[in-house]
Write a structure and sequence with these properties.
Layout lengths: L1 E2 L7 E4 L12 E6 L12 E13 L2 E11 L4 E2 L1 H4 L2 E6 L4 E6 L8 E3 L2 E6 L2 E8 L3 H4 L7 E5 L2 E2 L5 H10 L7 E8 L2 E8 L1 E4 L1
Length: 197
C-alpha cells in the first residue's frame, strides 16, 4: 500500500478486491474523475465505495469503515492520516503512526455528485449511480454556476482553493443549483442523501 500526502481521500483498494465484499456490505458506485485536483487532471473511471467489515493497516485494525475501490494502486490519503502523527523512517522503510484520534469513515452523505475546478470553473467531475442528482439529469461536465447564494462562475485561484479544501456544500442539507450545459442554464433542487449508512 502506498501513502499519498497529496490525496485528500481515505483508504483506497484495487477494484479487483471489491468482489470479496460485494454481497455482504453496503456499497455505492460512481463514475468520473476523482483525482481532478485543482487543475482538472485525471481520467474518467469507475469507483465503488463500500463499508468493509474489517481492514488491517499494519497493527491497526479498523471495523465497519468505508473504503474506496478503484482502478488504481492501493493507497492511503490525508482523510486517514489527519488522525495520526506520522513518522517516516526511510532507513527502516517503515511508517510509524501515533494515533491522535479515532479514524471514522462510516457514513457517506452527499448530493449525488462532486465537483472539480477546471479553467476557473466548478465542473461536475463525479456522479453517483442511482442518486437523485443522476435521476434529475446532472451529468459529468456540467458547469456549476451557483449553489444557493454562492456564485461559482469565473472563480479566481484563491476561491478555487477555498472550495476544494473548505467545501461549503458539505455543510448544506439542501441546495438550489444552477448549472450550465452547452450554454443552456438549468436549475434544480437537491437534498443531501445518505448513500451508505
Amino acid at each position: 500500500m502506498k501513502f499519498d500526502t497529496g490525496s485528500n481521500g481515505g483508504i483506497k483498494l484495487p477494484l479487483d478486491f471489491y468482489s470479496n465484499v460485494l454481497d455482504t456490505n453496503k456499497s455505492v458506485e460512481y463514475y468520473g474523475k476523482a483525482s481532478t485536483a485543482i487543475y482538472g487532471k485525471g481520467e474518467n473511471k469507475n469507483y465503488v465505495d463500500s463499508k468493509v467489515n474489517s481492514i488491517e493497516i499494519g497493527d491497526l485494525q479498523l471495523q465497519n469503515q468505508i473504503v474506496t475501490f478503484d482502478e488504481n494502486f492501493p493507497k492511503i490519503g490525508n482523510k486517514f492520516f489527519k488522525n495520526f502523527k506520522i513518522i517516516i523512517s526511510y532507513d527502516e522503510n517503515n511508517i510509524y503512526m501515533i494515533k491522535q484520534k479515532e479514524y471514522s469513515n462510516t457514513v457517506l452523505e452527499n448530493f449525488g455528485f462532486q465537483t472539480g475546478i477546471i479553467d476557473q470553473k466548478a465542473i461536475v467531475s463525479l456522479v453517483y449511480k442511482n442518486s437523485n442528482a443522476e435521476k434529475k439529469g446532472v451529468q459529468l461536465g456540467d458547469e456549476i454556476v451557483s449553489v444557493n447564494d454562492l456564485n461559482f462562475s469565473e472563480l479566481i485561484s484563491k476561491d478555487a482553493c477555498n472550495i476544494l479544501f473548505n467545501n461549503p456544500i458539505k455543510e448544506m442539507d439542501s441546495m438550489n443549483i444552477l448549472f450550465s450545459r452547452n450554454g443552456n442554464k438549468q436549475s434544480l433542487q437537491l437534498e443531501k442523501e445518505t448513500l451508505i449508512n
